[in-house]
Structure formats: structure tokens, C-alpha cells
Amino acid sequence: MTVESLSAWLLSIMLATIPPGKPRWPKEARESAEAGRARYAQIARTIAEVSMDEDESPIFAGPYARGKTAALLLTISFHESHWARHIDLGLGPVSRRGGGRYHCMMQIAVFKKKTPEGWTAKDLVKDREKCFRRGLHILQRARRYCMSKKYGPRSMLNLYASGHCDHAHGPVNKRWRTYDKWLAEYPLAKADKKAPKKKKKKAPRRETKAVWSSARRREA
User: Fold this and answer.
1) Which residues touch 6 (CB under 8 Å, ≥6 apart)?
2) Cβ contacts of 118-122, under 8 Å, gap ≥ 24
3) pLDDT tens, 45-81?
4) Cβ neighbours for 117, distance < 8 A, ≥ 6 positions apart
5) What is the model's pTM?
6) Alpha helices in the chain (DSSP H)
7) Residues 176-194, buried b or exposed e (16+ Cβ, 10 A)?
8) How far apart are CA 175 and CA 27, in angstroms?
9) If you ran DSSP here, which 8-state letter would residue 187 be given?
């Protein structure tokens, strides 16, 4: 799977789930369908790039581990923001929930003015890559911690949502249902098969001595 095929797969889910240009409230969420589609494509590309980054560990194992990681990031961002323009771009007071404590499409809380990576709340909103990378780091840590406490692998979302491995079951179950539904309706295996194959570059054709000497005779 490539970044291109993964981002196309993510975009197809986004377009089918919330057609761009539909939200009308608040006013900062309004945009044309064309502008919304372009913004969706940028979001999908960012999630794919973060998930496929070899310096990052996927939060799943087995086939399509990175694709499934991207699917979970997309799931969380959908439930936290519905990919709305005002939340994505940090426009207006409604873009920050929890009394202004949560930021960007992953609705990340920033304590002590900066994240452990050294990013401010403004950084998370200004740079989608930082938003999704921080979200991935929270999930990586949550998975390790909750598994060490003998909770199941899916408890990482409980910690993400509530700070505890065994809290917020209602909202978390809703997110897992979305995740499972998308993987069933949009199989990653099909997305991988659609990935364009790289064409091999043909070696430059060498002129034979006969052709070269023929050309020289014509010049003469």
C-alpha cells in the first residue's frame, strides 16, 4: 500500500460519510462543495503520510497494519470534528470544545501550554500533520499502557477519550462501530489492489555502428 492509494481510500470514505459543502452552522463551517473536497483531500493525504511514516509504529499488527492505523485516526477525527471547516482551521469559538481546552480535528488537550513533542495548541491547528501525529502518539502510548494493565487492545480508545483504560465505554463503542463498519464496507485489500504500479523506466536506446555510420554518410 502506498500513500497515494491509502489517501484515495480515506478520501472515498470521507466523501460518502459527509459530502463536502453540506454543513451550514456555524458560519465558519460554510464552504463550497469544491473547496470542501479539496480540503478533504488534504486531510486524507496527511493521515496517510503520518500512518505510512516508517519512523512511526502502527497501532495494529498483521496485514494492513498501517492502513488500519489510518482508519482509526480517520474514525477519531470524524467523531471529534466531523471534518468541519471551522474545527479543522480553528475558526471561531465553537472550534474549541471543553471550554477551549481541546484543539484540531483530533480534539487534543494541551496541558502546560505544550504537548510532549513541544507543540502548542496553535501548532496543532495550523499544521494538520502535527495534529494527527500527536493523536497517533497518544494512541501508541495508550495501547502500551492499557495492554500492560491487562486490558484488551481496544482499550486504547478508552484512555484516549477519558484518560482511563476502562471508562467512557458508550462513546468508545460508538467509535469502534464506525471503524468496523468502514473496514467492512471499504476493504483495505481492494484499495491496495487499486494502487498504481510504478512503470519501469526504459533504458535509452543506443545507436548501432551501422546507424551511426549511415547518418555520417548522409551528412557527407
Assistant:
1) 48, 51, 52, 66, 67, 70, 191
2) 122/90
3) 999 999 999 999 999 999 999 999 999 999 999 999 9
4) 130, 133, 134, 137
5) 0.86
6) 3-17, 33-52, 65-81, 85-89, 121-126, 128-148, 156-162, 169-185, 188-193, 209-219
7) eebbeebbeeeebeebbee
8) 27
9) -
